[in-house]
Amino acid sequence: MTDITAPAAVTPDRGRHRRTGDRIYRSSFFLLVSTVVTAGLSFVFWVVVARFYTAAQVGLATSLISATSLLATFSLLGLNNTLIRFPARREARNAQISQALLLVGIVGCAAGGIYLLGLPLYGAKLEFVREDWMSAAAFAAFCGCAAASMLVKSVFNAARIPEYNVLIDGLTQGASKVAVPALLTGLGVFGIVASAGVGYAVTVVVALLVLRRRLGFRADLRTRGTRLREKFRFSVASHVSNLVNLAPVLATPLIVLHQLGAAEAGYFFVAFQIAAMLNAVSTAVGEAVFAEVSHQESRFRELMLRSGRIIAAVQVPAAAVVVAGGGLLLHVFGAGYAQHARPLLTVLAIAALPVALNTWACFALKLAQHMRHLIAANAIMAVLSIGLSVAFADRGLVWVGYAWAVGNAVAGVFATASLIWSQATSRYAVATSEAARDGVPGQAAVSYERAVLDASKDGPDHPDEFTRRPSEGPFALDAASPYPSPSAGPSRPRSRSERPAP
Description:
By secondary structure, the chain is an all-alpha fold. The protein has 17 helices and no strands. The protein is 73% helix and 0% strand.
């Protein structure tokens, strides 16, 4: 067992060209596997449900389960990003995790209760849930568990052990959901909802046990040093950004349903789900590099460029495969899907490239803490995607795909340009202040040019912490580091004179 409060372990150098360890490839792989496993077992869950429940019951349950996922996402409050980007020091890390889980769980339960209170306004057919106090209390609890299960994924990502997300969020949650529906048929529609809720609850329990054994986690409600209040603005800004980014995903199916009808909405849903698996590549790599740079801020440029190369190497051929074989994929769902959804899937597969650019640039902005630019980029994507879909959806389903592609392309270019401009201006501010402090005439202009040329060689900008050294980052390799580094060591090869004697 690795104690979360133990000093950081350092792995000695081996080999002439060994570098400071990073896990972008490994983390990206496991994050992507987790997404695939979760999607696969979710498909099995609905197949099992369809065998034991009527189509009407399934239709009502999907609305409640979708609402649970959406409410859980709203309840994260951006703390999932804060736990990765700004982990507390070792002595306060248990308290940071404990308070974040408690806060998210309470907000999730409250959000579930508020949703039930408003059902007469937007879900009259679902009022049966609020009529029984036990069902209502269970639904609210499921929302809290769903939010906590989402948050705990960030704890494993922050510790750079995302393989546990495959075990817990993928296999444990999926297997728990699949095993329950047949046992709860007597509950009717709520039996399906309860099956999903049991999966969330089991996930939280197993995750806490793994955290205790793997990272030495213990519940701690002390408030000193948790950094949650200190980084509240970052949490809120990242949360707002995530919600804005989610808006087109929620709004576009409604636009298609309203302007093109139920059949076209079904074709859109299937094509978009296939494209979502394609887009999961850039998201997985982005989450991996987000955790990695948080450990090693001085390698910001190097790791971001490496992640960009990984995304390009995987995303381009994957998109080409979907474009070429989209018809075969859609034939699995039926000949009608292959006929009507094929053009849309082709456009969405090509659009995976601007989606990847936008995802990569937004992760970079979040790491560099340029939150206004991050929110602006996501707002541009949302406004263009939704606005163009409303304007051109009546021309056909493929035009909705064009709207999605244009929105992400413009947002990606804006986010990339914002990152370059922000870093250059921040370097200029540093250079100017240093020149003024040294009292050297004309030094500011020289320092500015040098700063712009060297901007790519340094880590992300921190306008409020210019003087912080890389070794003072949140995952510095000292006794205060919250996690042991899996492969820490010097980043340059040792000379012959520096090597230990055999």
